[in-house]
Amino acid sequence: MYRKKRAGGSGRLCAFVLMLAMACVAMVAAPQRARGESVEDHVVQTSAPRTTRVDMFDYWLQDQHAIDYAYYNQPGFKEQGINIGHKLLFMYSTRGESGINEWHAGRPYLGIVQRTLDENGYPRLSEQYGGESLAYLFDGSDESSGQPGKAVYPNATGLFQLDGDGYYHFDSQKEFASFDPLSGTFRVYDTWGVKASKLLSSNHDGQFFPFDRAETVFDVADGSLVQRDVTPTTTNLSTETNPSPSLNHWFGMKVTSEVYQREGGTVGGKPITYELTGDDDVWVFIDGVLVADMGGIHGARSIQISLQTGSVNVFEDRNGDGTWRQGEQRYNNSSTDTLRECFRAAGREDATSWQGDTFADETEHTVKLFYLERGSGSSNLKMRFNLAADPDPAPRAAMRLVKTLTGADIQDGFFSATLTPVTSDTATAAEAAQRLGGVDAETGEKNVSFPAAARTEDGVATSSVDLLSDAEFGADDVGKTFVYEVLELVPDPVPTGYTYDASSYRLSISVTRSGAVISVTEQLSDEGGDVIAEASYTNEVDSRQTPVTVTLENAYAPLPTGIVLRAAKVLDGRELRADEFTFELREGGVVLDTQTNAADGSVTFDRIAYDQPGEHDYQIVEVPGDEKGVTYDDSVYTVHVSVADDVSRGSLVATWSYGTAGAPVFHNAYSEPTPAAGDGTDHASTSSGQAAAAPAAHPVPDTGDATTPTVLLVLLALGVAAFVAARRLSR
Description:
Blueprint: E1 2-4, H1 9-29, E2 52-59, H2 135-138, E3 150-156, E4 161-162, E5 168-171, E6 176-180, E7 185-189, H3 214-217, E8 218-221, E9 224-227, E10 251-261, E11 266-267, E12 270-271, E13 273-279, E14 282-286, E15 289-294, E16 301-306, E17 312-315, H4 339-345, E18 354-355, E19 358-359, E20 363-373, E21 380-385, E22 399-406, E23 416-422, H5 429-436, E24 446-449, E25 460-467, E26 481-491, E27 498-499, E28 504-514, E29 517-525, E30 531-538, E31 548-556, E32 561-563, E33 566-572, E34 582-587, E35 590-596, E36 602-604, E37 608-610, E38 614-623, E39 630-631, E40 636-646, E41 651-658, E42 665-670, H6 683-686, H7 709-730
Parallel strand pairs: 22-31, 33-42
Antiparallel strand pairs: 1-26, 2-3, 2-10, 4-5, 5-21, 6-7, 8-9, 10-20, 11-12, 13-16, 13-21, 14-15, 14-20, 16-17, 18-19, 22-25, 23-24, 23-26, 26-28, 27-31, 28-29, 29-30, 32-37, 33-36, 34-35, 34-38, 38-40, 39-42, 40-41
InterPro entries: PA14/GLEYA, Strep_pil_isopept_link, Strep_pil_link_sf
Keywords: Membrane, Signal, Transmembrane, Transmembrane helix
Protein name: PA14 domain-containing protein
């Protein structure tokens, strides 16, 4: 059985006041950390075009982290790593090379690849260079699958920002982009990173080295990123977190976009354009036809493709605005100044419909960009595009429920949350439920459970569930706001040891329209009505890349446990007296407790409490005395105690075992001391002839008490033996 848990208003106010007071004390007591001390404070917000995919590739010759910059090529480099068996080379230096591997300064080397993609969708070298497919550079094969010198990172996200005119963009002269291979995402920082090198021509501040970390190129001072003296030719960069001594020069990128030609080549009233500045090889294909050829090892040059007019320009962008202007040098192949001419030159003019020199409206197209950095010098990238998606798909909302549990692993299905559609001013609860899907007809709620997740090193387990990714909002929804309440489901009774999240949230999804673009805006509010998260999506922006996130925080702390360790004393030769012998309980050489025996021979140590799982080894020893006639027991008894977290009970549980010496039963013997001569004692009559009295039996202890049945049985057996011995002596 579950109950919905809400926090009381007064409790929240008290908690807020307490937190505010603690914060004020901390501000006085501790030095303040300056804003921006971490490079991560300077990561900018990016956006993911819904129909654009970016694949990243890292290449190498010797190994992935070996230096890839040198003034001259190393011996045998043509038969190492990614170069093995291929004509298109990755090089330390272009000195001594020619043709497709030669440095061409500012001029692209045209004709390296054929005018159409191969049957698998990859560029292929022109016949004069052997006609080899470049699939080995851009497909999913890597070193583990037989392609030496290559690592593949598919579907990389986070490179592009979105401006107010609907253009996605990245510019290495303004931002530094660092790709994280583990997460498959870019982090884009708010200023350029790599400095220009005086050793290289066609070089400027703001280089594109995506496989290098921000910590390699930046320091932080006064809340701002400060560029270190790192250039494309720096060779002393090795650190504990950066094994490579130089920047990572050899890499590739494939960008695939699905485009819908509409409204005369515009979207949102803006011309549909595809602009790029970069080096080295850059080839742009549309529907498998080469429309922009900027191959070769060269300095930064630019491409501008207009789907509004159909114009294609490969040129030197002297003023840096991405637009070709009269007087700027052009490098187009002959008779390929428009999209239609490019298709005609490839023999594909009849493969699509035309409207003048550009594509006809209501036609779909695929744009593929292939980018290589093959040298060890400058690396540049600037992109700007607004390729329109198919208007038919409706925009989607997205919400991610995140569950964190401190102190234990998350068990599959153990935690649940509920979303309840509610009526707003413009949409009914039934309409909201229809968009959500999976709502129980009786309760009007949708319950979701969290999958299993293990704790990380910080002791926190994190699980998540994505919702609303299938909810589409179309033209009929414009002007409506759909509202959902989000709560954690709390079992009744609450499992022992667990603390649940008392927060409740409200998610509002508003649908608007601007021209042909339908937008979905999500706002997440807390119980006080304050907006704590917000995101907007269109049918051109994939909401799943940046969902609104609700985090429910839970904690687990098991109930403590304890154990009582006991021993027994048996004395032969006379009756045992209370407090006659002393015993110590030790751990790691430290005395934890000292106790004496009871009259029945039992020895009980103070209870040991545990609030953490762990392993413990204890020693129980007798403290030697100095009573005449008593022989003391020097045995050392060991007890191993294992404290484990029984999550099913919400409690720590202590279990124990004895060492090789067995149960801690100490045997002492008493012999009447012989008096000194002339003391007048009648030695024949002084021996009592009594054995030790049988120790009284103890009850079986409670859980966590290590007085064991084994010890009790031993004590009972010793008691019986003592009784028999006493009867024999009395005869």
